[in-house]
Amino acid sequence: MVSARCKMAVKEExxxxxxxxxxxxxxxxxxxxxITDEQRNELKAGLLSSGLELMDDKRAVLIERIKxxxxxxxxYTDEQIxxxxxxxxxxxxxxxxxxxxxxxxxxQGTTIENYIILHKIERIKELIIYxxxxxxxxxxxxxxxxxxxxxxxxxxVTGLTPSHFKQLKVKRRTQIEDI
Length: 179
Fold this sequence. Notes:
Distance between the termini: 13 Å
Helix content: 55-70%
Number of strands: 2
Number of domains: 2
CATH topology of the largest domain: Arc Repressor Mutant, subunit A
Radius of gyration: 19 Å
Largest sheet: 2 strands, antiparallel
Number of helices: 9
Order of helices and strands: HEEHHHHHHHH
């Protein structure tokens, strides 16, 4: 669940079942009542019809929480990213980073680091397109050690330099949900 529209769809499905929610956040729902198996199945079917999935498997839930934490930090934080991602994830998810990294790699077939890089590149594309910050400011905001480091990583992922990407502006960004 990565958008306001997803959260609205979840809230609507909960209302249909007369379930009262405490929290509906990205990838996480807390409801007041204990739900029956029938309600769980109805919720699952309702969410599926909206293109969403009810996660029951603890490993799958943890993977989704990792993804949500990365998305929140990269896409929804306007401040400079100052904290190391491994520390951030360990503290937020209350698990050892090595465990999280191994689980993520095993289930997703890619590393958390690569997942983070892909999201950072998408955020950089967005910032370039908005044209409010120059590349130096973007590098600082996204916590790159230098413009060269950002440029090298950007080119490795996209095949383009940031300045060439800025000139094109026709290159479509990848939707968060599709990464």
